[in-house]
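Supplementary notes for students who missed Thursday's class. We covered one full example, reproduced here. Read the sequence, then the structure, then the short commentary at the end.
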Amino acid sequence: MTISNYNKHLSCSICGRIPTITLLKVSGPELVLKQKCPEHGERLFKIPLIEKPHLMPHFRMGIFRCYKCGQDATVDHVKFDGPWALIKCRCERHGRSLPYQKIWSTIYTESSFQGLNSSPTANEIENYSTTLNCVSCGKLGTILVLKVIGPEIFIKQKCPNHRVVTYTIDLFQRDLFLPTIRRAIYRCYKCGEDATINLIKTSGHFTVVKAKCPKGHFGLPYQKIWSTIFAELSDEVHTTPLSSQPAFIEKTPAKSSGNINFCPNCGSRISSTEEKFCGNCGVAIQ
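Structure (token representation):
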């Protein structure tokens, strides 16, 4: 599916406007997305997490938008609660009288204007490349647990020569650490050599992985990695092409207050109010 098709699916099926995203979270291998069009009500999507990189431009447009009038809005303030970023936007027309939007914190930091204006350079990433190394021997340890707690990323790491350590890094600096985090995930727990991922499964907010050591070490532990971060790092996600068919699993259509201008199934424009079926996907127009 092309980016333009994603935009059609995530736009209001009646008026074609970009709805405000009121809730966006990760649930296992899926993204749960709740939208509200100011004229035609709310609807719910479930989208495979693997599609997230292709949807980020639309998420940015949907998050920073007034809940009441649909115009562009700015963030008035943000507070973090567990895995959530609770956002209150400010609209020129409606001021601060807008509800909080519940956005998964890792997706918010990637979508935020601060993140868009502060992409790290290659030199900055290189300066952080040894930050996660063992303080005793200088080797890069294996990440056993990585999760988001409010505005921080919690990491539990084991060097093959020394003890387990835990620490936190600023969530807004995640892009500086991502290359090193990836190397520390794809690593043997026992010898510290680069490894491949042998098993992947989901458990709540985590992707649980098991590495395969090139030296044949057995009994490697499961590694628990926050799903949204693992989705950006894994080879499986980055080598997967755009789907040829719609990837949306479930959708609650918007409430109609008049003629249907867009197909509720595929998002294509309906050229005439007398049409009974969509000319693109063939679904019946109610």
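Commentary. Residues 122-238 form one domain. The CA atoms of residues 152 and 171 lie 5 Å apart. If anything here is unclear, bring it to office hours.
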